[in-house]
Amino acid sequence: MYALTFSRFENRFLIADPQHFDRQRLEDGAVHLLNALSLQETDSGAGGEGPSVTSAQMWDLLKTCVVRMSRMDLAACCERHDLEGTSSSVPSGVASTDVGRHCVAGFRAAFAESYSGETSQLSDDQKWNVYSDERIRSLATDQ
Amino acid sequence: MLEKEARVQREPGDAQAWYELGVRQQESEREQKAIQALSRAVEIDPSLLPAWMALAVSHCNEGRRDAACNAIEHWVAKRLGRKPQPLSSFSSGSRAASPEQHERLVEDLLTIVRSSGADTVDADVQIALAVLFHTTEEYDKALDCFRTALAVRPTDALLYNRVGATLANSGRSEEALGYYARALELAPAYVRAEFNTGIALINLSVRLDLLAF
Question: Could you give all domains of chain B from N- to C-terminal order, each with its CATH number?
C-alpha cells in the first residue's frame, strides 16, 4: 500500500543515465524539494525538532538531483543537510527565517550557471565515480 | 506550528487544539507526531469526527491498514450514532482488516450516502470511502471518491494533495502536478505538497523516450 498523501519516488530515476533527463524538470523538481526543506526547517523554529525521516530521504533525493547536474559542491551541502551552506550569496544579517528563501535563490542561480556552461562540469565518468553506484543502490533500497 | 504547540501546552484538555496541531504536523511531514496529537484529540473528545478521519489518513501513510480501518470504524459509529463495534483484529500493527470487516465498513458508509439523498454529496463520507479503498489498494475507486469530495470542497488544499498523490502513485505524475499546484495556491506553506511536486517533477524528468530498457 502506498502512502495516502505522499508521492512515491520511481526508481527509474536512479537507473537512468545523465543524457536521459529533462534538465528543466529536474531543476524545477529540485527547487521544490529545497522549498519544502526550507519550509519545514522554518516551521520547526530555532529550537525545533530534529529532521524527520522524510526530510532525510528528501535530502538524499535532492543530492541525487544535483549530482545529476554535475554540481558536486551543492551535493556536499546536501550531504550535510545544510540549508545555509547551499548558498554562499546569503548576506550577513539576513533573518534566519529568510535563509531558506535565499538558499532557493542560490540553488536556482547555481542551476542557471550549469545550463549556461559557465561552471565547469565533471564528465559523466567522474560524476559516477564520485557518487558511487553503491550509494545510489542504497537509496533505491530505502524506498 | 509553534503557535499550535504553545496552544496545546496552555490548554492540554482542548481536543480541537490537539486536532489542529495534528493536522499541521501532517502537513509538515511529521507523521508520528501527527498520530500522537490526533490520538490525544480523540482520547479527549471521541466525538471529534475530523480527528478520527485525520488519524485514519496518518495511519494509511504509515502503512497501518488495520489502524486506519479502526479509525474509520470510530468515525462511522459516531456518524451512525452507535457504539463502535469491537474489531478484534484491529491493532496498532500492520495487519489488514478482514475482508468482512472492510466490506461492513463500506456498506455502513454507503448507508450514510443513501440516507443523505441523491442530490447531496457528503464530502466526509467520500473521503472515508477513499481511505478504505486505499487500504485495499483500490486506487481508482479511491480517486473517484476523492474527486467527488473535491467537487463539493473546491478550496480544500489537503484534498487536492490527496488526489494528486493518488494519481502520482498510479503512475500519473503529469496529471498530479495540476492538483499539487492548486494545493499550493490554496496553502503556500504546505510542505507535503511541495515535496510531492518535487518528486513528481523528478519522476517526470526521466525521458522515457530516450531511456533504453
Answer: 1-45 (no CATH), 64-151 (no CATH), 154-213 (1.25.40.10)
Using a CB-CB cut-off of 8 Å, the residues of chain A touching B204 are 22, 25, 29
Q: b vs e for A82-118, b when ≥16 Cβ sit within 10 Å of the residue's Cβ?
A: ebbbbbeebeeeeeeeebbbbbbebbbebbeebeeee
Distance between CA atoms of residues B8 and B30, nearest Å: 17
SS3 A12: helix
Answer whether B143 touches A (CB < 8 Å). Answer: no
B60 confidence band (pLDDT: 50, 70, 90):
confident
Q: How many other CB atoms are there within 10 angstroms of residue B140's CB atom?
A: 10
pTM over 0.80: no
More confident residue, A33 or A81: A33
Q: Count the helices and strands in chain B (H runs, E runs).
A: 11, 0
More confident residue, B187 or B31: B187
Q: Do B206 and A13 touch (CB under 8 A)?
A: yes
What ipTM goes with this model? 0.80
Residue for grid cell 527547487: A31
Residue that is written with C-alpha cell 536512479 in the block:
A14
pLDDT confidence of residue B17: 96
